[in-house]
Each structure stands twice: as structure tokens, then as C-alpha cells.
Write a structure and sequence with these properties.
Layout (H helix, E strand, L loop, with lengths): L7 E2 L16 E2 L5 E7 L5 E4 L7 E6 L8 E5 L12 E2 L3 E4 L3 E8 L3
Antiparallel strand pairs: 1-2, 3-9, 4-8, 5-6, 5-9, 7-8
Length: 109
């Protein structure tokens, strides 16, 4: 067995030492999506992320003390808040209302 620094997860029934990279759930030696910023605002606003590109994001929409939340993953580069309640561009992430969001990036900051 060869020892490699890092963490690997494979699907149930696969051998961790022989599982091909395209079937691995996670391998820390390969590039994966990482969280650049997260927050749980209670009102509308925006966050200046400064990534220089429109990042992908995950949003759980709604109040978390109630049972009515929904979520989605997107990379929507809208011109303004009039087009979408949640959007991002190369400098900001805009959110409208109570939510929990995660801005994602791939690679290094």
C-alpha cells in the first residue's frame, strides 16, 4: 500500500486503494469546490466577495425556525436584483431576504 497525505472517500463497495478518481467522492489531492464565504442574513443586502468572477453559490431560502425552507445551487450572473432574488457578479453577491448562503470557488484564493 502506498501512503498519500490527504483524505479519500469512495462509494460503499469500492476499494479505497483501487477506486478510480472519477468514482471517488472526495480526494484532497484534487481540486474541489471550497467555501469562500458564508452568512445567514435576516434581511436583504449584498456581500463584496472580490473574487474577480461570478462564483457558484448555494442558497437555503427562508427562515430556519420555520419548516418552510427551500434551497438551490446556482451561478447566476444577473444585471440587477430586479432579475433574480439571489445573484452574483465579479464583485458582489446580492441576497433578498432571510437566507443562508455559501459562495464557492475552485482552486486557491
Amino acid at each position: 500500500m502506498t501512503w498519500v497525505k490527504g483524505i479519500k472517500f469512495c462509494p460503499k463497495g469500492e476499494d479505497i486503494d483501487t477506486c478510480p478518481i472519477d468514482k471517488l467522492i472526495l480526494h484532497t489531492n484534487y481540486n474541489t469546490m471550497k467555501v469562500a464565504h458564508h452568512d445567514s442574513p435576516s434581511d436583504y443586502g449584498q456581500y463584496s466577495h472580490g473574487l474577480g468572477y461570478a462564483p457558484a453559490f448555494i442558497v437555503a431560502n427562508g427562515l430556519f425556525n420555520e419548516g418552510s425552507t427551500s434551497g438551490f445551487v446556482a451561478q447566476y450572473n444577473a444585471a440587477s436584483a430586479y432579475e433574480a432574488p439571489f445573484f452574483t457578479n465579479s464583485t458582489i453577491f446580492h441576497y433578498w431576504g432571510a437566507c443562508r448562503y455559501f459562495l464557492l470557488y475552485q482552486g486557491t484564493l
